Amino acid sequence: MPQIPNLRPGSRGIAARRDRRPLPHIPVPVARAVVDCAIYIDGVRQPGRIAYADAFRTVRDSGEGFVWLGLHAPDDDQMTGVAEVFGLHELVVEDAVHAHQRPKLEIYDDIQFLVLRTVKYVEHDSIEQASEVVETGEIMIFVGPDFVITVRHGDHTHLSGVRHRLEERPERLREGPTTVMHAISDLVVDSYLAVSEKMEDDILDIERAVFGAQKNWLNIEPVYLLKREVLELRRAVTPLAGPLSRITANGNALVPKEVRRHFRDVADHLATVIEHVVEYDELLSSLLDAAATKVSIQQNGDMRKISAWVAIGAVPTMVAGLYGMNFEYMPGSDDRPGFFIVVVALVLACVGLWAVFRRHHWL
């Protein structure tokens, strides 16, 4: 019979824990994060599929055109590989991998790094049934003399439409990589306008609910929800004014003059959106105060009703309590008519109290 080794208590678990070694990290190829990559010469996309490293090498060797590389949610290893090829700074690589950045513009020598917050309106039948109104994402743009890299986070930040529209207008792409940065910025700011217009309808619904004649209890939760979503939109929109101001500055030699003119139009649209968002924020603050006041009034009305019914019920309760003490001499306790007289008196007293409270709008 084989001998069983003598194991100390817990030694089997220790051995098992020692065997649980962390799995080795398997790097995912950069191609998994690449959405599209192309070379544009004289504004025209060159045919064929090409790896981003080969495309950048071809452009650098020929000195013509630029590379447009599109990435979707790359990880650290993937973004590091791209940074080594294009010569990106390690700080912007970290920002490109980890989302939730505020809109900003950073310049590293001749490379511009622009962060844009994207928004999408979440359709819903009623604001009272909605759990979310605005969905956010991010687009990060690296612009160099002969390349542009777009990194997007989120499911609603597709840029294929922008690429196709620009490819139909070679005269725009002929102006260089900054044209791509303008087209994406214009798309993002236009989405701000669309979202703000749809949110205005929700605010009007809230306004009608707060100030309208409503017999039911006012639900204040949609006001808080919309207030939170407007603040989310404000955090995405307002900080972008600074980066656009730096791009449109006359001293910015990295952006051609004609492209700066187009960016000024984007800045004007952004200013309109900021005005709308600030107005919505102030209006919702007023609606929130009005809704809280209305709820307080409703609560006071309910307390008046409760107090009135308690006062009406106190009269028969007091009389019943007196008769329940079994005193020797109680009015109407020895004859039948006395009982009915007491009951009628109680009914008249309760009806009288009800009429008084009704006249004073307590019931």
From TrEMBL:
Annotated keywords: Cell membrane, Ion transport, Magnesium, Membrane, Transmembrane, Transmembrane helix, Transport
Major location (coarse): membrane
One Pfam family hit: CorA
InterPro entries: CorA_cytoplasmic_dom, CorA_TM1_TM2, MgTranspt_CorA/ZnTranspt_ZntB
Entry superkingdom: Bacteria
Catalytic activity as recorded in UniProt: Mg(2+)(in) = Mg(2+)(out)
GO CC annotations on file: plasma membrane
Residues spanning the membrane: 306-325, 337-357
GO molecular function: cobalt ion binding; cobalt ion transmembrane transporter activity; magnesium ion binding; magnesium ion transmembrane transporter activity
Topology of the protein relative to the lipid bilayer: Multi-pass membrane protein
S-adenosyl-L-methionine in keyword set: no
Location(s) in or outside the cell: Cell membrane
SUPFAM superfamilies according to UniProt: CorA soluble domain-like, Magnesium transport protein CorA, transmembrane region
UniProt similarity note: Belongs to the CorA metal ion transporter (MIT) (TC 1.A.35) family.
Record's function text: Mediates influx of magnesium ions. Alternates between open and closed states. Activated by low cytoplasmic Mg(2+) levels. Inactive when cytoplasmic Mg(2+) levels are high.
Protein name as catalogued: Magnesium and cobalt transport protein CorA
